[in-house]
Design goal:
Structural class: mainly alpha
Helix content: 55-70%
Largest sheet: none
Number of helices: 8
Number of strands: 0
Strand content: under 5%
């Protein structure tokens, strides 16, 4: 009975997950609506990714961010006209977000290193399905080049790796880290962590 109770998710945990999902989802939808392809296309600068730093405060951010990403990318199927191919972004984009958030939580004692989690996860995963998504949207060459997408998966993957990784790094280091440092001076970390310090002993900034 005791182990069953421990395995059950508490109402406060569900509330934190839902709050983070709603916050990230709304911010991402805002970016999708007003930044267009810059928030989901081959060159990505999704400003809402800065909210991934919430994973430095609580493990509840891992499912929360993944859920918010799935909802926002699902909405983009309608907003961006990606059709059923947009489901690739829903599944694999959300997986990349979850992995990046998990890495951030595990490395939370070293925030400057931890924010590389989303950079690496998105940089490696998103370009793998990017050619299919671009072809479905009417792109026939690797963006900014004359290289045909047909049979050019390695070139497209390399292009996506660089562009997605650099865009994510800019957002995480230029916006995410300052946001983290601002938030850690507020009561929010204690609220998200249930009243306990989310950083392990000996953690550094």
């Amino acid at each position: 009975m005791g182990s069953k109770d421990k395995a059950a998710m508490s109402p406060s945990t569900m509330a934190r997950i839902a709050m983070i999902a709603a916050l990230y989802g709304a911010a991402t939808l805002f970016c999708l609506m007003f930044m267009g392809g810059l928030a989901w296309g081959p060159v990505q600068l999704r400003l809402s990714e800065a909210l991934c730093v919430l994973a430095l405060f609580t493990p509840d951010a891992i499912p929360g961010l993944a859920l918010g990403c799935a909802v926002a990318n699902g909405a983009n199927i309608v907003l961006g006209g990606t059709g059923t191919l947009g489901l690739l972004d829903v599944v694999f984009g959300s997986a990349a977000t979850a992995i990046g958030a998990w890495v951030m939580w595990r490395w939370r004692a070293h925030p400057s290193v931890a924010v590389l989690g989303p950079v690496v996860a998105n940089g490696l995963i998103v370009p793998a399905y990017l050619p299919l998504l671009l072809a479905g949207l009417g792109f026939y060459t690797v963006p900014f080049t004359s290289i045909s997408l047909e049979g050019a998966w390695p070139a497209m993957y390399l292009f996506g790796l660089v562009c997605t990784g650099v865009g994510e790094a800019v957002v995480m280091y230029a916006l995410g880290l300052p946001l983290y440092r601002a938030l850690e001076r507020t009561p929010l970390p204690a609220m998200l962590a249930g009243g306990t310090d989310p950083r392990p002993m000996g953690g550094t900034r």
